[in-house]
Amino acid sequence: MSETPITYAEAGVDVEAGDKAVELMKESVRRAQRPEVMGGLGGFAGLFDASVLARLAHPVLATSTDGVGTKVAVAQAMDRHDTIGFDLVGMVVDDIICCGAEPLYMTDYIATGKVVPERIAAIVSGIAAACEQAGVALIGGETAEHPGLLEPHEYDVAGAATGVVERADLLTPERVQVGDVVLGLASSGLHSNGYSLVRKVFESRGWAYDRDVPELGRTLGEELLEPTRVYSADLLQLIRTEGIDMHALSHVTGGGLAANLARVLPTGVLARVDRASWTPAPIFGLVQELGQVPVADLERTLNMGVGFCAVLPAEQADLAIEVCTDAGIDTWVLGEVSDRESGDPAYGEIVSGSKGVDAGACQMVGQHPAH
């Protein structure tokens, strides 16, 4: 039996470092608030005044949870941690907006091998900044030190958010009609999906993150850490714009454009997306070329430059494009909705049944313009 007392610190957990991290993040969290938030940082639970729901005739709560995936490995390798929060918030709150709900509040969870207060504070500063941009309150979180499970420099992040929508305004597949148009909203880059493939491609070719890449106009690492665009506040404004009758919204994440668009459509209809309507950013071509990645696999993995799809009546497309463009989001007509029978496998794969959802279908046709 050991005669030397074993403390929690000797086991690898530094409680004082955790307390210092909380102190460093307080100012960032303070900016990511809403009037409905009750209490302050450090309580056992985040409090949100639910009387805000009283303004709705039939409030429906929406919730979502997600992480960032292996993009955190890039942040760790580059020792830059202030952008990964945008990826987390985007993955969570932008799923909620897909049903028409306004995201209200969010909580986060960070697991790390060793609490380095400045690193934790940098991560949370990004989360708070993204929440502030999205109009979402960051009302709580947890940092856990896992020595022996994670290396000292390693960490992972996850989050969950809750929103609310009037039941009559809920976006469901039944709203979509044959003849609707599909708008594409540009992504800021790779966002936060497919990084296992992306990292594998560049590692296999010996490309370091500090490599200057002329096609990208910056280093590879800077490109890979480009924060996910957070759409929710701008899409909420679009939904509430007079003259807009939004039928469906699709967040293009894991599974790619076709699979995620298909899951918000009703059975019996097909969205035909024309690749010729946009040119993906150079990073997507680099991944394909260096890795000799088949096009079908690439499109099932990456967003290919489209971060969101909006489905609405054709006569409202110009107004919707104007609203999104004014918000700084490049937006264009991506395709149209027709009946399922119009799909011809000779022109490309017809994607349906994604995520176990019995829904509509999507077909990608044509070719992207050359750079």
What is the secondary structure topology, with strand pairs?
Layout: H1 15-31, E1 37-38, E2 47-48, E3 59-67, H2 71-78, H3 84-96, E4 102-112, H4 117-134, E5 137-145, E6 155-166, E7 181-186, H5 195-204, E8 212-213, E9 218-219, H6 220-224, H7 232-239, E10 248-251, H8 256-262, E11 269-274, H9 282-291, H10 295-301, E12 306-312, H11 317-326, E13 331-339, E14 350-352, E15 361-365
Parallel strand pairs: 4-5, 11-15
Antiparallel strand pairs: 1-2, 3-6, 4-6, 7-12, 7-13, 8-9, 10-12, 11-13, 14-15
Explain what the structure shows.
There is one protein chain. The protein has 371 residues and is α+β, with helices and mostly antiparallel strands. The protein folds into two domains: 143 residues, 60s Ribosomal Protein L30, Chain: A; 193 residues, Phosphoribosyl-aminoimidazole Synthetase, Chain A, domain 2. Helices cover 30% and strands 24% of the residues. It has eleven helices and 15 strands. Strands 10-12-7-13-11-15-14 form a seven-stranded mixed beta sheet. A four-stranded mixed beta sheet has the order 3-6-4-5, covered by helices on one side. Strand 4, helix 4 and strand 5 form a beta-alpha-beta unit. Helix 3 runs parallel beside helix 4. The longest helix has 18 residues. It is globular. The N and C termini lie far apart (70 Å). The mean pLDDT is 90. GO terms for molecular function: ATP binding; phosphoribosylamine-glycine ligase activity; phosphoribosylformylglycinamidine cyclo-ligase activity. It catalyses: 2-formamido-N(1)-(5-O-phospho-beta-D-ribosyl)acetamidine + ATP = 5-amino-1-(5-phospho-beta-D-ribosyl)imidazole + ADP + phosphate + H(+). Belongs to the AIR synthase family. One of its GO terms (biological process) is adenine biosynthetic process. This is Phosphoribosylformylglycinamidine cyclo-ligase.
